[in-house]
Every structure is written in structure tokens, then in C-alpha cells.
Design goal:
Elements lengths: L3 H8 L19 H19 L8 H13 L3 H24 L3 H25 L1 H5 L1 H5 L4 H14 L5 H16 L6 H13 L2 H30 L2 H22 L4 H13 L4 H5 L6 H6 L3 H11 L7 H21 L9 H22 L4 H15 L5 H16 L5 H17 L3 H18 L5 H15 L1 H28 L3 E2 L2 E2 L22 H17 L13 E8 L2 E8 H9 L5 E3 H8 L3 H13 L5 E4 L10 E4 L9 E3 L10 H30 L1 E3 H12 L7 H13 L3 E3 L6 E4 L2
Parallel strand pairs: 4-8
Antiparallel strand pairs: 1-2, 3-4, 5-7, 6-7, 9-11, 10-11
Helix pairs in contact: 2-3, 2-4, 3-4, 4-5, 4-8, 5-8, 5-10, 9-11, 10-11, 11-13, 12-13, 12-16, 16-17, 17-18, 17-19, 18-19, 18-20, 20-22, 21-23, 22-24, 23-24, 29-30, 29-31
Length: 743
């Protein structure tokens, strides 16, 4: 048996761990002796319940219980114990039931703590019964049985159960109304219910507690919504959620937190999400407009708690709608008004930067918000058919002067932003057309701020669309390098780059890489024409079988001019050179004379004359005066021209965006270039599938080509018909909507 010190500790309510040795003495026990033994144990249990166990011999009590179980009187001992505890707790319930309101919970707390301590002491006395009889007969263990009896006789007593719940809920309600309460009493009650069983805690307390919570916050939320702005309401809701978390920490069971949060979130947030988000002057849209990051962050965190319906979906929807409206205003073309492409793109970039910053700062960089933003931008950017042209013009402006003096990191950041806008374009091949034209002008005119920056941009485009997209752009750079080598060879063969005192520099361009110029040539002055012929003969000796075609619209010239007593060096286009050299022999020429002698296309000639007579540097005088050039005008040499600059460049006056005729021409080129791409996609798909239904083929072709442009179904249909005519495909004889591939 355990030493006497053990029993002293047990009498004081202590705990220890020990091993029960086998009982060595075997003693017969009859019914009468069993009754006397039980009476001894009964009296001891009664004293323990009275908290008067100091005079008991726990060693003797343990031996008595041991003997009863050993001699098959376990039923008597177990049933007697249940009856004794039941009678005792009925008296306890009576005392608790008649307690005054102020003493009710403290009284219950005291009775529970005493009963729990008593149950531990009784369990230790009857430990042998727990280890043998209870296991064999599949009874409830002594300590757990004591808890069950307390549950049934005290907690679920008709006079206690309702009062207990009402008292606890009232205390919690008062605390929610900013009163100070004794949290320890509630903690004892909830811990008691949990120990009596999770089902007891949930059924007797948690379910009605959650119902009361829902009622409280339902009423408060409606009042608060009517009296506060969305920002203030959400601050209060956030505070309430924090208070409920503290409640769980201090006196509720941890398992209640999820269900409690669900109830509070439903009443404070889910039921009012739409009203909060759309609240006039203070909802999500005003927050977005005013960059109220803290308020948006709070909205994101609160709405994110609601999954059904999707809380964050409400914010995404409003953000997308707002950005879409702003974007549509930015891209809308006013009839007859000239649009500045640089300002157009800057507006788009500013809008994107603003909402990217909001998503990163307020919405934790949520990918779903970025996806919504990207979808919105893709929608409204493609509403304006000139977006590819404007973006290319913006890059052109940045490459020529916009990024001059900026750091390498700033240049990369700007290029990344432009590529991001490019990513939204559905007609990327249209952008390619314009970009090629603008890049050609920069390379041939030497206007780019850096070849490295140009190559970096092309590399980014290649990463987006693949090698095929940028192969011609890279070919243009290769031509520039080869042209430099060709010029060196010409200089070596000729002894100088000068021909008849004219310093000639030629770039030889590969036809397939560079944009095709349809504006035609012009009549070059005789000395210049002879220079070109000398170079042609030299080049064709080096490269037999090739053909050179001069692109005068892409060239430029440096002229030395004398105006009265002043001399200047002027950089002009080839067309301007042809016009100006006419005035070496003539003081005054009509528009018709200039057109006849130069053979420049009318549109280009008017632009050239406007640059010379109406621009910053008025080298010619126009009669009559005016900003526009008409076919009835006449022009004369401006001998009185003066400028503080000895060297200057006369830029060609041109609208930054295309005229309607040029736009139509570019569109035709794009449509022609798309035809072989669409046909190639159709053949690839049909070659792998062999047979395919019309709608399925349209869908697959569209999916393949979306990376470059969005083909119209009618265009795809026409290409299918063309392939059938050329016997690449055929229709099924039994189903005209089914196509077959012909090997």
C-alpha cells in the first residue's frame, strides 16, 4: 500500500502518481460484512462532501473499497456511490436555487469547485474499482459519473438552468454595453460546462449565446449604419470583432471562436456589404478616388472575412466598374479634336499606377484584384482602335527625348510599364506595324537616346510575344550594323566618302525588315543623283544579283546656306533638300512649279513646304500668308532670314497620328498580313485533328492567334473558304459544317 505521506497529501486535496500492488491477503466477506463496509465508505463520502476529510484514514477506506470489489460487491459499491452523490447534489441544487441574484453565480462557482475536489478524492479512494469493476462492467468511471450527476441534478435543475443562462447572457450583454463585469465568474461557469461535456457547453450555453449575439449585433448594426459613414462603421465593426476575440480569450471556450466570428461577421458585415460598399460619399468608390488606403485596407480585411457571398468580390466589382468608367473617359475620342498620344498614354499609366499602388497597399497585393484590374484595362484600351498607334508614338517620344537624363532603373521601369500596356492590346500586330515605322525613323535619323535602350525594349517584346514578333525589328538593327561596314568599304574603295564634294552616307536596308514606303520617290538634284549612281555601281559589284531602290522619304541632308550676310548649316529631310536647292536658280516658284520639278507626292510636298514656310524656321516665304499650304500658293527665298543658331534642324511638320487615309492604308496592310497567319493556324490545327466541326475550328484558331490579334470569325471563315478552293481542306459530304484535311 502507499506510504502514510500519500494519504496525508490526498486528505489535503493533492495529486500523485503511484502503482497499486496486488492485495496479498484473501479474506472472505459475507453480505452483512459488505453492508458494514459500505456504511463506513458512505460515511466517509459524506464527510468528504462536507469538506471534513482531515480525520479520515484513506488507507483504511481504500482497503475497504478494495475488499468489496474483490469479493464481488462492486455493484453495491458503485450503485451506492451514485445514490449518495445524487442525494448530496440535490441538496446542493436546492441551496443554489434559493440564492439571491448577486450570490447566484458565486454560490454555484463555490459548489462546483467543492464538488470537483470531492470527486477527485472519492475517485482516489475507489481507484481499484475504476481499474477493475468499471472496466469489466463497462460503467462510467467514478469521476466522470460524479460530473454527470452534477450536470443532471444541478446544472439542468429546472430552477437553475434557465436562471444560469439568463444571468451569464445578461453579464455579457452588459459588458457589450461598456459596463465592467467580473469575468472570472463567467470563466468558471463556461469551464464547468466544458468539463461536463462539449455537448453540454454547446447545447446549454453556446447555442442560445450565439442567438443572443446575433440579436444584439443585428440591432446595433442597423442603428450604426444609419448614423455613420462607411469608414466610421467599419472602424466600429473592427473594434467589435476585437472585443469578441478578447471575450473568447478571457472566458469562452476556444472552440466557440469560429462560430462566434461567423455570427458577428454575418450581422455586422455580410448583411450590409453592398450598402456599405456603395454608400454615397463614403463607400468604396470615394475611398478609391481619394486614395484612402487605411480605410480600403480595413474594408478589404473585413469583407475578406465573408466568403458566402464573396465579400471581396463586392470590392473587386466596384473597383473594376470605377476603373472602367475612368478608362472609358480617357480613351474616348472627341469628334474633330486632335488627341495628344503622349498625354493619352501618360493618362493610362497614371491610372494603372494609382490602382496598382492601391492594390499593393490596401489589398495586400491580392492577385484576384490584379486580375480584375488587368481585365478592366484590356477592355477599355481596346475600345479605342488607335491605342496601338498611340502607345507606339509614346515609346517613340520616350526613345527620342523623354527618357534622356534618366537613370538605368528609371528607364527599365518605364519600359516595363509600356510593355504592360502593350500586353493589354488585342491587336498586337497593329502595334508592331507602327513600332516598326517609328523605330525606322529613329534609327535612320539617329534620334534614339540609346541603342541599348532600344534593344532592351525589343527584348521585352520578344519575351511577351516570341521571336517571330521581333525578328524584323532585330533585323533592322542588323542592317544598321551591316550598313556601317558597307559605308567603310565604299569609303576605302572610293578613297573618300565624298563624291563631287558631296559627303554621301548610305544605309542599305533589307526590304523584308523595314516598313514599306508607298509615298514614292522624287527627282533628286543632279549632283546628288550622280552620287547615288556611284554608290549603286560600287554596291552591285560587291553584291551581284541584288537590286537597290532609293527610299528618299527616309533620308536627310545637311545643307550650307547663306541668308544675306549670315551663314548657317541646316539639317533637313531629303524632300526639303530637293525643294531648297530649286531656289539656287529661282527666287520665286509656284506650288505647281515645285511639284513638277521635284515629283514629290502631293501630301508629302504640302507637309514639306509647310515645314519650310510656316514652321519655326521660315526659310521660305509663302504667298498668301497662312498656316496651311494650298496648290495656288507661291513661295520665295527668305533672304532676310536670321537665327542665333549657326547649326539647326528643320523638323517636318506632321500630325503625330495618322490621317484617315494613312490609317486606312495601315489597316489594309495589317489585314493582308493576317491572312497567311490565319491560314497557317487553320492548316496546323486541321493537320493534327484531320476532321473538325466549324465552330470548334473557329474557337481553336482564335485561341492560337489571340497572342498577336483577335481574328473576327467572318475573316476566319473566308480563309477556310480560300483553303477549300486551293484544296487544303474539303467539306464532309454528309455534314457541310464538318471539314476534313487533305494531305
Amino acid at each position: 500500500l502507499p506510504p502514510p505521506e500519500f494519504w496525508a497529501r490526498m486528505a489535503a486535496g493533492g495529486k500523485t502518481k503511484f502503482v497499486i500492488p496486488p492485495f496479498r491477503q484473501s479474506q472472505a466477506m459475507d453480505e452483512e460484512y459488505a453492508n458494514r463496509t459500505w456504511q463506513t465508505l458512505h460515511s466517509a463520502i459524506h464527510e468528504i462532501h462536507r469538506q471534513n476529510a482531515s480525520g479520515l484514514s484513506f488507507e483504511e477506506l481504500y482497503r475497504n473499497a478494495y475488499n468489496m470489489v474483490l469479493h464481488k460487491f462492486g455493484d453495491k459499491l458503485y450503485n451506492g456511490l451514485v445514490e449518495t452523490i445524487t442525494l448530496h447534489l440535490r441538496g446542493v441544487a436546492q441551496e443554489v436555487a434559493v440564492a439571491a441574484d448577486g450570490d447566484f453565480l458565486p454560490q454555484l462557482k463555490e459548489k462546483w469547485e467543492k464538488h470537483r475536489l470531492s470527486s477527485i478524492m472519492i475517485r482516489d479512494i475507489l481507484m481499484y474499482m475504476d481499474r477493475t469493476y468499471v472496466v469489466a462492467q463497462k460503467k462510467v468511471a467514478v469521476f466522470e459519473r460524479g460530473l454527470q450527476i452534477f450536470r443532471d441534478e444541478v446544472c439542468r435543475n429546472d430552477r437553475i438552468k434557465g436562471r444560469l443562462l439568463a444571468t451569464v447572457l445578461d453579464l455579457i450583454h452588459r459588458e457589450r454595453c461598456s459596463e465592467t463585469i467580473e469575468r472570472g465568474v463567467i470563466k468558471t461557469v463556461t469551464s464547468m460546462l466544458v468539463e461536463l461535456g462539449q455537448d453540454v457547453y454547446q447545447r446549454d450555453f453556446e447555442v442560445p449565446f450565439l442567438e443572443a449575439t446575433a440579436d444584439f449585433y443585428r440591432k446595433e448594426s442597423h442603428e450604426c449604419l444609419a448614423q455613420n459613414s462607411a469608414s466610421e462603421y467599419m472602424r466600429k465593426a473592427e473594434a467589435r470583432l476585437g472585443e469578441e476575440h478578447e471575450r473568447v480569450t478571457h472566458y469562452l471556450d476556444k472552440a466557440s471562436e469560429g462560430r462566434l466570428n461567423e455570427v458577428v461577421e454575418r450581422q455586422l458585415i455580410a448583411e450590409h456589404m453592398r450598402a456599405l460598399a456603395e454608400m454615397e460619399h463614403s463607400g468604396v468608390v470615394p475611398m478609391l478616388e481619394d486614395d484612402r488606403i487605411p480605410d480600403l485596407k480595413r474594408a478589404y480585411e473585413l469583407f475578406g472575412r465573408v466568403t458566402s457571398p464573396d465579400g471581396l468580390g463586392v470590392i473587386r466589382e466596384l473597383m473594376s466598374g470605377h476603373v472602367k468608367g475612368r478608362g472609358q473617359q480617357l480613351v474616348a475620342e472627341e469628334p474633330g479634336a486632335a488627341r495628344d498620344p503622349v498625354e493619352f498614354v501618360k493618362g493610362l499609366l497614371a491610372l494603372r499606377d494609382k490602382y496598382q499602388s492601391i492594390i499593393q497597399g490596401a489589398f495586400s497585393g491580392d492577385k484576384t484584384f490584379f486580375n480584375a484590374l488587368n481585365s478592366t484595362f484590356e477592355y477599355f484600351i481596346n475600345l479605342n482602335q488607335r491605342s496601338p498607334e498611340y502607345i507606339s508614338l509614346f515609346v517613340d517620344e520616350q526613345m527620342r527625348k523623354g527618357m534622356r537624363g534618366t537613370s538605368e532603373d528609371e528607364v527599365e521601369a518605364m519600359l516595363d510599364k509600356v510593355v504592360m500596356l502593350f500586353r493589354y492590346l488585342q491587336e498586337k500586330d497593329v502595334f508592331e506595324k507602327y513600332y516598326k515605322q517609328h523605330l525606322a525613323k529613329r534609327l535612320l535619323g539617329g534620334r534614339s537616346i540609346s541603342d541599348d535602350v532600344e534593344r532592351s525594349m525589343i527584348q521585352k517584346l520578344k519575351q511577351e510575344c516570341g521571336y517571330q514578333f521581333t525578328s524584323k525589328l532585330e533585323g533592322m538593327f542588323m542592317d544598321m550594323k551591316v550598313s556601317a561596314d558597307t559605308q567603310d568599304k565604299f569609303r576605302a574603295a572610293n578613297g573618300s566618302s565624298k563624291v563631287e564634294s558631296i559627303d554621301l552616307s548610305v544605309q542599305v536596308l533589307t526590304t523584308g525588315f523595314w516598313p514599306t514606303q508607298v509615298s514614292g520617290g522624287c527627282n533628286l538634284p543632279a549632283p546628288v543623283a550622280r552620287c547615288c549612281e556611284v554608290f549603286r555601281e560600287h554596291y552591285l559589284k560587291q553584291h551581284s544579283g541584288r537590286r537597290l531602290q532609293w527610299q528618299t522619304s527616309m533620308g536627310n541632308a545637311d545643307l550650307k546656306a547663306q541668308f544675306g550676310a549670315s551663314r548657317h548649316e541646316i539639317n533637313v529631310s531629303t524632300y526639303m533638300m530637293c525643294v531648297l536647292l530649286l531656289f539656287n536658280d529661282n527666287d520665286r516658284l509656284s506650288y505647281a512649279d515645285i511639284a513638277r520639278d521635284t515629283a514629290i507626292a502631293p501630301a508629302e510636298l504640302k507637309r514639306t513646304l509647310q515645314s519650310l514656310a510656316c514652321g519655326k524656321f521660315k526659310l521660305l516665304l509663302k504667298e498668301p500668308k497662312g498656316r496651311e499650304v494650298d496648290e495656288s500658293d507661291a513661295f520665295s527665298f527668305n533672304a532676310s532670314f536670321s537665327s542665333k543658331q549657326l547649326r539647326f534642324k528643320v523638323g517636318t511638320v506632321s500630325a503625330q497620328r495618322e490621317t484617315e487615309a494613312e490609317k486606312h492604308e495601315t489597316r489594309q496592310k495589317v489585314d493582308e498580313d493576317r491572312k497567311p497567319q490565319i491560314e497557317a493556324a487553320i492548316v496546323r490545327i486541321m493537320k493534327s485533328r484531320k476532321e473538325m466541326e466549324h465552330n470548334a475550328l473557329i474557337a481553336d484558331v482564335t485561341a492560337q492567334l489571340t497572342a498577336r490579334f483577335m481574328p473576327h470569325p467572318n475573316v476566319i471563315k473566308k480563309r477556310i473558304e480560300s483553303l477549300i478552293e486551293r484544296e487544303f481542306l474539303e467539306r464532309d459530304k454528309n455534314n457541310w459544317r464538318m471539314y476534313k484535311y487533305l494531305a
